[in-house]
Amino acid sequence: MELDAGYDGGAHPSSEGHLVRADYTLEGGGGRIGVARRHAAAFLDRMRSEYGLQVSQRVRDSIELVVSELVTNAHKYALGPVLMQLRAGAEGVDVVVWDSDPAVPVVRAADPGRVGQHGLEIIKKVAEKLFVEREPVGKRVTARLALSEVPNPA
Question: From CA 149, how far away is CA 141, in angstroms rounded?
Fold first, then answer.
């Protein structure tokens, strides 16, 4: 399901065409959020050093923010490990997070008075695409971010 203007059953993201991919199992409690951010930073450094893909500080910050938000949601709502995959290519970077909770996340309407639960709102602002795929166990959430600094108009 693609989360652009709601769940429309859009095409799921392809991992084809990516220059580099890294997979991580994130065990443990809340510390895995920081670990995931460090993995993302190292992955982006590898993109630059090994493949010459330049990522601005703003895009880098957005990728690390998306990693934090997706892993935080998985940590809050699912039991067990969280799997994270980072994929990069000329079209951008995919942040993929799998968890064991089958519940599909809901993007809530903006509400400045609400405390918390703004993660998907934030991700939709910085990502080009946001996909949710149900798995035999749990779900997989993919956020695709452009390497350019053109902001999402949504």
Answer: 22
